[in-house]
């Protein structure tokens, strides 16, 4: 069996600010298995984004540690891709140039193969033929697809997604969820996916962590009891509906607390 891709060891995070200190996370321990899709749910401010930033090496924990592939994280790494709530594309660069931006940033040049791969990824995210457009010429959903293609371009082993669909309308969001299922079925990755949508978490993930807070800690974990491949019909699966109802109850209780 493969060792876990990500491991949190008794991790804590205290932010010190001019107005005092905030204990954002306390004693967080969990693993994310190789090619597991883990969704994280939890009340606002319980530290979900903070967890992602620590996996990505953008923030160091104040106690405990986070390991990626068995090594403590000490800084940003190339084998982790990140998709944020907003795609933050360079407005003056074409869609294709945005997708190859990380490789240009890392190596200083872009090869014909890099451009070919950008085209393949555009097709994969449903944007074939849009490579020469500027971001402003695309809808919010299309821009978010470009952000996903950019995160996949360096073929990262781990993909971190922080509420990637929260700025989208409900229908686009649902379509993007099904697209993600297809993309990861073609090319499995270890994914950590933060969302406030219970049904999105249950549809996409192998396992759902529900955090409680604050300080945030792991409240409970739930295996998603439906098989892959998944699609629109999975939304009607009684096991998924039961899990969704349970998660919703849990979150309501936690939000109220
Ligand atoms: N750089 C920072 N400096 C000070 N406090 C911070 C910083 N980053 C996060 N925090 C605090 O840490 C706590 C957790 O924040 P975080 O953004 O991780 O929560 P979250 O669960 O992702 O919230 P949401 O669901 O609303 O996006 C919050 O109380 C936040 O104010």
Automatic annotation (TrEMBL):
It holds the Pfam family ABC_tran. It comes from the Bacteria. GO terms for molecular function: ATP binding; ATP hydrolysis activity. Residues 6-238 form the ABC transporter domain. PROSITE patterns: ABC_TRANSPORTER_1, ABC_TRANSPORTER_2. InterPro entries: AAA+_ATPase, ABC_transporter-like_ATP-bd, ABC_transporter-like_CS, ABC_transporter_ATP-bind, P-loop_NTPase. Belongs to the ABC transporter superfamily. This is ATP-binding cassette domain-containing protein. Keywords: ATP-binding, Nucleotide-binding, Transport. CDD domains: ABC_NrtD_SsuB_transporters.
